[in-house]
Amino acid sequence: MARIVVVGAGVGGLATAARLAATGHQVTVFERADTVGGKLGRYTHDTPAGSFHFDTGPSLLTLPEVFHDLFEATGAKLDEYLDLVPLDPIVRHVFPGGGPTLDSCADPVEFTARIGAALGDRAAADWQRLWRRAARVWQASSRDILRRTVDSPRDLAALAWRVGDLAAIAPGRSLRGLGRRHLSDPRLRMLLDRYATYTGADPRRAPAALVAVPYAELAFGGWYLRGGLGTLADALLTRCLDLGVVVQTDATVTRIDATGGRVHGVRLAGVTAPVPADVVVANVDALTVYRDLLPHPRRLAGLTDRSLAGFVLLLGVAGNTGLAHHNVFFPDDYDAEFDAVFGDPGRGVRARPAADPAVFVTVADDPMVRPAGHEAWFVLVNAPRHGTAAGAVDWRRPGLADAYADRILDVLARRGVDVRDRLLFHEIRTPADLGVATGAPGGSIYGTAGGLLRPANRGPANGLWLVGGSTHPGGGLPMVTLSAQIVADEIGPAW
Fold it and tell me: InterPro entries attached here (predicted)?
């Protein structure tokens, strides 16, 4: 039995802790915040009409089998803890210029028919060809990448790629390039581009292999958890406690001790004595690990390409607007948004808030999260991370957040959804706020920008492991949960 310390009680940390405790290890989790969940945050706003409850992080659960596997591996059933609600549509796409909307769903035949009805037969045929390619990429990724450690480019090169898999993955081609090759309708290209932002990346530079992301969502479905996605954190905490894991909140790890090439424990703020450990699992951003907790200049050097962040509005809306659970309102010029959010430091072009961004609106039809006759809106737009570098924005600048919030509401009004005279309240969450709340440097949602090669799960010292969205296999709830499985499998059982 190993003494294992997990740094951070996000989904990755809790999932790893539960798996390790279920195999006989002695596990302690230290969390800097006063609650668990990490980026799976929650917020409650009380009004005379009643209470509004918001998820302030992920709003969609995909690949449900990953979570079924997690709970079964710890001796439980997912359905005993969580109420999964399938979504149809998964996302309602509202394109610029008016015209028909497009509702995605988990039935490939039905979704193709919806594309044909909304965008025409040629668009439907284009999508079918792309879908076949996406399936091939997903199968190769799922088989060879998502459930094993990938520590270096050599590991990727050593995989037994089949010729057909390599042709589908198209090394060197961007997701944007793949869309232009396969999709003639600019609206379908917009739909595909958006999935690059799921990994924090610019579709013009993100690898074509990210076509596996929409495949995973549309092939296996999108799900909501009744009561909000934050209930996943509650369920994982309960599993951990039932398995004997010690979870300490308000406990900040300031350093990982690793002399002689292996870990010996961690240091806590305000505590003189070190906490001994045979294994340390870090569920914090890889940049924080290699900059602050265990300084490592070589690994730190590879973490400069940060992912995008998000600007969020939490709205209490009177009445019913008739929106779907998830809605995306596309801009006239998607490239202008990416130019703004990512900037171009090489040409001296600074990042800035996008003037006319895509707006993502989540409205859960769930009486557990809003008073009767009202809606709780989570509004998200892509945004530069917080900071003073050319690729960032100082979101603490006086007046900036309030002015940008007003602009987003104006953008929604121009796109046919005007709720400015129906707001009971609005709350703002900037990338700076996310950075403070979760320890994500600059509020970057996914650590480094998306790609096939993320920071490795295996740390530079024996006994050090990394999990979470900033590490392999990437961001998003299922990938974070798979990172926990990879690390727990590598550590192995206590017996």
Answer: Amino_oxidase, Carotenoid/retinoid_OxRdtase, FAD/NAD-bd_sf
Please report, in angstroms and rounded to a whole number, the separation of the first and last CA atoms in the chain.
Answer: 7
Tokens describing residue 149: 């450690």
325-384 confidence digits (pLDDT tens) = 999 999 999 999 999 999 876 677 899 999 999 999 999 999 999 999 999 999 999 999
| Residue for token pair 């039935």 | 107
85 domain-assigned: no
Instruction: Return all residues near 116 (Cβ < 8 A) that are at least 6 apart.
Output: 123, 124
Yes or no: say if 283 and 9 are a contact pair by the CB < 8 Å rule: yes
Instruction: List CB contacts of 421: < 8 A, sequence separation 6 or more.
Output: none
Q: Is residue 56 part of a domain?
A: no
Q: Are residues 353 and 311 in the same domain?
A: yes
Number of domains in the chain: 3
**Is 398 in the same domain as 436?**
yes
Query: What Å distances lie between residue 284 and 39, 64, 69, 173, 447, CA to CA?
Result: 11, 24, 23, 31, 10
Both 158 and 285 in one domain: the answer is no
Judge whether 307 and 446 are in contact, CB under 8 Å. yes
439 and 461 in a single domain? The answer is no
Looking at the structure, tell me whether residues 397 and 463 fall in a common domain. no
Strand partners, 256: 266
Residues 6+ apart with CB under 8 A from 162: 140
Strand-pair partners of 223: 61, 86
Could you read off the pLDDT of 41-92 as tens digits, one per residue?
A: 999 999 999 999 999 999 999 999 999 999 999 999 999 999 999 999 999 9
Sheet holding 61-62, edge to edge: 61-62, 222-225, 84-86
